[in-house]
């Protein structure tokens, strides 16, 4: 007439239970006496992984591993026919460690090197572009040679003639010239005579 429960818990990792020996009354569906193992710390039909009810030496033995950090063991028996019971051992099992723990680190290192090379190449191209751009902007433009402009006379074409002293056209007088931006006009008859009179009177050098 027993109804017992034990919760086997480990602080980390998983629980491994080993049934070393069992000598329990045999019955259909373990209706009289039974030992049940549940994955977790509560009783639930969905988490039951074993039900033991068999006589020694044909008793069930085996090893079970939990998904979490605990197992629940439940033992029940009726009020008649007794047997010796069972022997169980349980241990804590650490999580499996990768056989090559440096693999992920190596992958990350290679990925970092690849990203670094790509960034370096991109930065170099950008720097070359910037240097070329400023170099082209800083070049001094070529100084173009000044264009000579021909200045035409103010009145008339290139064959304009000026009147002579006697009123006729004097071909010896030159046409209007452009020198330093000033226009030199040919002298008329009255201006010539006045300049001659002034010079003779000592007014002009």
Automatic annotation (TrEMBL):
It comes from the Eukaryota. Residues 164-181 have a biased composition (Low complexity). InterPro entries: CUB_dom, Sperma_CUB_dom_sf. This is CUB domain-containing protein. Residues 149-205 are annotated as: Disordered. It comes from Magallana gigas (Pacific oyster). SMART domains: CUB (SM00042). PANTHER family: OVOCHYMASE-RELATED (PTHR24251). Residues 1-93 form the CUB domain. The chain crosses the membrane at residues 109-134. Pfam families: CUB (PF00431). Keywords: Disulfide bond, Membrane, Repeat, Transmembrane, Transmembrane helix.
